[in-house]
Task: inverse folding
């Protein structure tokens, strides 16, 4: 039971948030019939699909692992929006698996040592 709870806690920590700064001309961002607008409408709430769609929009630029406040753009002509997605953090996953393996080995040794301490009855 304790191992299962620890495993769930470790797996929660294996996700990281990836940010995407998306810039486009103001007209493109405000026009629902534009390429940018259509991507937003057809893929609402699905960051991966929006980004794939925006790859086909010539006036939209995507900066991976950046937020709008981390990039330079002409705010007079362009707007910026920050999208985010969750991704698997390989480092945290590896450390979590290592921790669980060590925990399992420790529990096996603990169980084995408790069995060795049992005195036979006469």
Result:
């Amino acid at each position: 039971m304790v191992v299962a709870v620890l495993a769930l806690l470790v797996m929660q920590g294996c996700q990281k948030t990836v940010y995407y700064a998306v810039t486009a001309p103001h007209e493109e961002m405000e026009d629902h019939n534009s390429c940018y607008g259509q991507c937003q409408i057809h893929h609402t709430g699905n960051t991966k699909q929006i980004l794939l769609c925006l790859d086909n929009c010539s006036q939209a630029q995507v900066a991976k692992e950046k937020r709008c406040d981390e990039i330079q753009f002409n705010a007079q002509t362009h707007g910026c929006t920050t999208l985010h997605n969750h991704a698997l953090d390989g480092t945290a996953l590896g450390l979590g698996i290592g921790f669980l393996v060590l925990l399992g080995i420790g529990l096996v040794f603990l169980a084995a040592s408790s069995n060795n301490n049992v005195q036979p009855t006469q």
Observations:
- The longest helix spans residues 90-116.
- Helices lie at 2-12, 26-30, 35-42, 47-54, 90-116.
- The radius of gyration is 25 Å.
